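BUG-356 | component: ligand-complex export | severity: low

The export step for pyridoxal-5'-phosphate jobs runs without errors, but we want the raw record kept on the ticket for reference. Input record follows.
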Amino acid sequence: MNSDMITIDVQKTQHSRLPGLDINNLPFGKVFSDHMYLAEYHDGKWGRTRIVPFGNLHMSPASSVMHYGQSIFEGLKAYRSDEGNVVIFRPTANQKRLNVSAQRMAMPDVPENVFMEGLNELIRIDQNWVPTGDGRSLYIRPFLFATDDYIGVKPSDSYMFMIIASPVGDYYGHPLRVKIEKTFFRAVEGGVGFVKASGNYGRSLYPSALAKKDGYDQLIWTDGREHKYVEESGTMNLMFIIGDKLITPSLSDTILAGITRDSVLTIARDWGLKVEERRIEVDEVIAGLKDGSLKEAFGTGTAATVAHIYEIGYEGVDYKLPELTSNSFSERVDKELDNIRRGRVEDIHNWVHKVC
Ligand SMILES: Cc1ncc(COP(=O)(O)O)c(C=O)c1O
């Protein structure tokens, strides 16, 4: 497919599931919009693209994705602006990051037109699935997976790129109690921690389940070599306000380059806050908790948005964080991001992409 514009075959559903559903009141990620987008890759090029009613896929049991894990994904959101428009937050950043993941996993790039035109058309068709309520949005899940029917370890020759969408509210809905993990690790240098490979999430489930048994909502991952530096948390990047600075682990090949992370750091710099992107020792976090210089800790991510941490567990001791106020940075930046998406303040960085 060489031309800039692609042709998408559209088959609309005769039976929308929307009537009868309260899309402002659904559990996260369990109900999907009426349609889905599919683009097929064969013989070294992208071919058929279509939008069809949401439904099951037919796949061979030999599909290589099920055996060797060539599977990557993205996560972004469409919002309803105060004026009633449907907008998507920074979609081209997701398209670019998908291709960073694709390269590391020996998969083909998804060209901008295959990604963006499919996304625009799907969200335009399913625009009534974008909720209106505060904190509500349409979560969008693009994903790419290997489809060769072949039992043998090699990069697949064929792939499917798809987009599905789900109306959502808060991912957590409450401040978090997190545990600094010292036994298991999420990523090591030279690995795939910096990409959104499905296997990164599968491998995190067992350690997270152990922490949940002890009442923690999430883990703070530490580096895989020494468990000495904090890295990230679940599906969020981590940020701390220590003294008068916003400090966050610098990006590396063990940390996902979060788009929310980048947005929060950009706003912080716009506001004149001192920002440090560097390695952060666990000891520095614990010392800040003990002497009170650590004022705020929070995660940033598309699903979780800005998620406050109220307690951090480390080596059997739980440390409480100070109460937040309306002046806390994480509160203010959370509001600012929402104001940008809803069109309440000027979008000076061109982050908001209008669909309709
Ligand atoms: C491991 C991990 N870290 C961080 C993030 C936050 O990234 P973003 O802000 O782009 O959603 C995510 C979510 O995609 C993630 O899965």
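Assignee comment: Attached the raw record above. The mean pLDDT is 96.
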